[in-house]
Specification:
about 70 residues; mainly alpha; 2 domains; 3 helices
Length: about 70
């Protein structure tokens, strides 16, 4: 018999607060990277976009030495 998790107001509130917290963190990172783009690369978005792709791939590759996380998409 499978256990079902009862969705309570506390469970819902906790999960919504985690989602909002993550969104706010990414929003802050996004703004910081925009400022760095303006200061370091004179608002040349192509170089920061390519750099972001390379850094993102490295972050996904380095822990397990594979890119299996991309397959999940």
């Amino acid at each position: 018999m499978a256990k079902t998790k009862k969705i309570t107001l506390a469970y819902f509130t906790r999960n919504i607060s985690v989602v909002v917290g993550l969104v706010l963190i990414w929003r802050g990172i996004w703004y910081v990277l925009d400022v760095l783009d303006i200061l370091l690369f004179s608002n040349s978005r192509i170089w920061t976009a390519l750099g972001g792709i390379v850094i993102g791939l490295l972050i996904l590759y380095l822990p397990d030495k594979d890119l299996k996380e991309i397959e999940k998409l």
